[in-house]
Amino acid sequence: MITLLSALALAANPLPQAERLPQPEFGDKAIVATVDALLATLETGDAPALLKLVYPEGRVTGRGTFPGGASGLRSRSFTEYAAQMTPGSGFIERITNPVVEQDGDVALVWAPFTITMGGKLVSCGYDHFDLVRENGAWKVMNLTFSSRTEGCGV
Q1: Which residue ranges make up each domain of the chain?
Q2: Using H for helix, E for strand and C for coil, what is the string for 64-76?
Q3: I need a labelling partner for 28 at 20 to 30 A (CA). Which of 60, 98, 101, 140 fits?
């Protein structure tokens, strides 16, 4: 009954047209370039380069099934992660169709990924990068990802 009365009241007195907000200016290219640069450091195993692109106290957190069969939750700081990087490991991570959201100096990137090692597909899932712009440069605060070893398709 209340719904019917509300509909009748709105029909008699429609709400004024809302003003559209201007489309925000997005820096998607610079944000995605930072993510791409981070992924390149993982591929080369260049820990010092990684630490220039991130907040060292930020986290790398994964949930799911990982190559080798381990499953659960893994989380460590970028500093801890960088200490375990190995040059020449054959690790390659590729993202596709990144979705970027930005508000001022804060942004996020959400994208499906695949990981290969030695040319073999070993896992997939979704990456979620939190970024913060400092002194005009984007840095990754956190990387959170899902991980699975089945249903990855190529």
Answers
A1: 26-147
A2: EECCCCCEEEEEE
A3: 60
Radius of gyration of the chain (CA): 21
Type and span of the H or E element at 29: helix 28-44
Q: How many angstroms separate the CA atoms of 140 and 59, rounded?
A: 9
Residue 47 makes CB contacts below 8 A (sequence gap 6+) with: 41, 82, 83, 85
pLDDT digit string (tens) for 30-88? 999 999 999 999 999 999 999 999 999 999 999 999 888 889 999 999 999 999 999 99
Which residue, 114, 120, 107, 129, is CA-closest to 35? 129
Task: Round to whole Å and give the CA distance between 136 and 138.
Answer: 7
- SS3 label, residue 32: helix
Q: Tell me, what's the pLDDT at 56?
A: 96
Please report, as a single letter, which amino acid is at residue 151: G
- The size of the chain, in residues, is 154
Name the fold adopted by 26-147: Nuclear Transport Factor 2; Chain: A, (3.10.450)
Which pair of structure tokens corresponds to residue 119?
């040319």
